[in-house]
# Entry
Amino acid sequence: MTDSQKQEVAISDNSLLLISGVARKAARTGALAGAAITATGMLSAAALSTYFARQVVVPPSRPEENLKVFSVGYPVEPRREDEHPTTITLNATPATRAPGEYGLYFDGGTHFAHLGEVLSYQPYEEKVVRRVISVESGDLSKIVRGRLSGVIARTPETAGYRAEEITLNLPVGEAPAWLVHPQASYRDYPQESTPKPSTTWAIMVHGMGVTRAETLRALEATQSLGLTSLHISYRNDRDAPPSDDGRYGLGFTEWQDVDTAIEYALEHGAQDVVLFGWSMGGAISLQTMDRARHRRAIKALVLDGPAIDWLQLIEYQTKYNRLPLRIGELGISMISKPALNIFTGLKRPIELSKMSWTRRPGDIRVPTLILHSLDDTYVPASSSQEIAMKSPLVDFIPFFGATHTREWNVDPQKWTNTVIDWLKIRLG
# Structure
């Protein structure tokens, strides 16, 4: 080797030495290059695993508006000052191309529009044009970016239902909830009327990173069944107070908040309850069934796109994001092992084995309906299908063409009729 080549190797090795003290120590033993590369790989894996694990348990400060808006259209151009937009052109994605009605948050989530069906799709330009049904707030003509949502109404009133705002005293503090009595529809019961008594309540548990507005899509079903519905907020969801560590428990801690909601229902006339859960709300509902003080009051579960098995889901997300399997494995350790909680900020480890129901199907003790899209690439339906095969108490209904927790949006009639027909039998 020439002196010049030796110098190049030395420079390269010295740059690697800067990575960590492990490599510096290895240099003294003569294993410089190999140890440095190993240290680099270890640190990269640790950093990536930490990021991966924190993405799972750290609540987002604000949902990202990752959808580009190219233009909005008006029925007559140039637009009159009092005219509202009738179309919007978005970048084409599986979500923006899907059939159905959706919500569009914009201006940092402060404003909202209700979008209708796809009018045209331009694959070469990667653009899709959808109908604008209404603009609840904000100036859509100035929009640049937005966030598509399965929410089509942000409050019970805008969804067409009278509601009472109540406060639940959760273990973490006071949190708001909507209480919707039977016969609350403005359309079906335009006059104020005394609600029929409901001895079965539906308690609605939304998913990760969203709010209780997600659960309003179930109101047509629960109103048809004459159920009182309680749409709750829970720790770390922006409406309720944070937990002491400010981290999601993936259901392992949030069940306590649902238990409080069940207690409220029982104190106000309910004899039993049905839990509705979307995504992580499904995981929360399953933990409530398993661990809550008032679990005997739970008569059935209705789960939409649920996180049935967190171990399978983390492994899937590792592969889906084209990461080495060891990244997911280390991320699982960071979430579930007390010694590694420093990486995630969790005050207490999450026992992911208890959150993985395909490994414990015999512990499902109440009738459970799962509605899950086979085109869900965020929480795949495979775990839902597997638990339905393993447990005689679980019924699985597939949907097609819907992205995560948007089964109702793609086919609201199928979703509503399925829930009504299934619950009629279970509620007697």
Observations:
- The chain has a mean pLDDT of 86.
- The longest helix spans residues 32-57.
- Residues 3-51 form one domain.
